[in-house]
Amino acid sequence: MRNLAILVLSSLLSMSAMAADVDAGKAKSGMCAACHGADGVSFAPMYPNLKGQKAAYLEKQLKDFKSGTRKDPVMGAMAMPLSDEDITNISAYYAGLK
Ligand code: HEC
């Protein structure tokens, strides 16, 4: 029982540290590619490029879309189902593309 408590506690702690998982971010970026391009460079002027953008900036924009602080009907809907962890991972993935 005590071991279980320690296990739960340590996994909670490691979650709050939230090291970005680039592979998980890549896996989650499939639907983003439809507009932002498979490698984060979009094919249409109205869709911004994400490749090589700063992770902290991407993360803030996605959280702002999700909360409605930044308003865009399309991106609001895209960001809605993403968890904070997804957002961290996806941002790290696009930031890391060269
Ligand atoms: C249907 C098309 C579409 C899809 C799919 C889509 N986006 Fe977007 N995205 C847009 C548009 C359009 C904008 C510009 C919004 C604006 O004008 O504010 C945008 C903007 C953004 C921005 C802000 C970029 C900047 O430079 O400020 C980020 C970050 C972003 N999208 C990430 C994503 C991610 C991550 C996904 C997948 C979960 C995704 N988008 C899926 C259309 C899309």
From TrEMBL:
Domain Cytochrome c: start-end pairs: 20-98
PANTHER family on file: CBB3-TYPE CYTOCHROME C OXIDASE SUBUNIT FIXP (PTHR33751), CYTOCHROME C4 (PTHR33751:SF9)
Coiled coil: none
Keywords per UniProt: Electron transport, Heme, Iron, Metal-binding, Signal, Transport
PROSITE patterns: CYTC
Regions crossing the membrane: none
UniProt superkingdom: Bacteria
Entry GO MF terms: electron transfer activity; heme binding; metal ion binding
Signal sequence interval, chain numbering: 1-19
Lineage: Bacteria, Pseudomonadati, Pseudomonadota, Gammaproteobacteria, Alteromonadales
This protein's name: Cytochrome c, class I
Organism: Shewanella denitrificans (strain OS217 / ATCC BAA-1090 / DSM 15013)
